[in-house]
Amino acid sequence: MATGARALPEITAYRSVPEFAFGRIKDIRIRWALDEIGQPYTTRLIGGIFEDKAPAYLADQPFGQVPVYKQGDLILFESGSILIHIAEADERLLPRDAKGRGRAISWMVAALNSVEPMIQTLVVLTVKGQGTDWLAGAMEAAKPFAEQRLARLSQALGERDWLEERFSIGDIVMIDVLRNASPQLLTPHPNLDAYVARGTARPAFQSAMAAHLADCAVGEPLPA
Amino acid sequence: MPVNPDSKLEVTAFDWVPDFARGFVRDLRPRWACEEIGLDYAEHLISAVNRPADHFLFQPWGQVPVLNDGGIRLFESGAILLHLAEKDARLMPRDPQARANTLAWLFAAYNSVEPMLFELGNVDIFSTDEEWAKLRRPSLIEFIQGRLGRLNDAIGEKDYLTGEFTVADIAMATVLREAVEAGLIAEQPRLQAYLDRCLARPAFQRALAAQLAAFSEDAGPPAA
Q1: Rounded CA gap, A153 and A142, in Å?
Q2: Which residue of A100, A139, A164, B158 shows the fewest CB atoms closer than 10 Å?
């Protein structure tokens, strides 16, 4: 290897997760972005979602989650921040002009803070509430929030292929969030359904998901 | 004086909200960022009761804040905070690792801490008298406590998340305020001291006063 070759970026991923989380882990977003720009990377596998993490890992990721991203001496956690870091180096993921950059980042934050929490809550309730007396009530209360966000998102997307004129990290996160929504939530909005299908048909999503699934097995037990 | 009607930087906020939301509407976050760096901004006040139809063009959920920076329009307070922080090293340090830490903690606030508190809001504010909410609450509280405990440990002996004050502290402190009433911060001593330290900053106090000053009793819904 030539001297001075830059070390490949490294991301962490889980070795095993419970069934409900299979195919839904956030290293997929990072793999997708890296594959969009043809940037090879290495993975470092750690146990599972609920396994106790070593203090050294918690120093890198305070909540013990994945992904952690390392490149040379630089280290980052939280998929949103990692995506900005990766995208700032390549305008195929993030426009360079201030207007386009602002819109793409607005959409990415919208996906992380205004759409994902409402969808994630429904997933969490379904898992944690299984067999409880509170599941039905909690689902009934939480569903309208998710439905309202998807209705507004459907209006905002309209007939466009992507959230803005060009594909960006905003689409990567939004599509990854939406594909975890239950079919009943997406069915009323054919344009959102088509948007998810369009995004997940991209070769970079396909290769990212294949690499994710090659690293991650189903099998981690749920905590007692 | 950051609130300046002649500024080309415009923050959209509501002219009235119900009592429980006063001091917690998210235009507080960009107001605080502007106050920290002495950046003038103009207020664009809109009705929360009758939201102008064109507002949805700039904010898909019809929420506030929206930022208009001389024609660059952003929505989602997280994206707006990032945009403002890029203007000043006091909010976003220039050193690559310090910048990476700031990005990571900002997204931790938005995607790893605040989403849990949305569900707590469903339980404690919107469904407080429901039987299912009383049954759901203990396991939700336990989950939130676990994550806040990790955050408490990560802050350790530091004054701020990355050591020095940054835009990430604006995000995290405004998120943590949402958990104060449930008693979830008081049980984490370092977190409580951290939040007190953030909220004692004069820039926060000025931002809070500016939000409260913008509310007009005449702008509320007609009395029943």
Answers
A1: 17
A2: B158
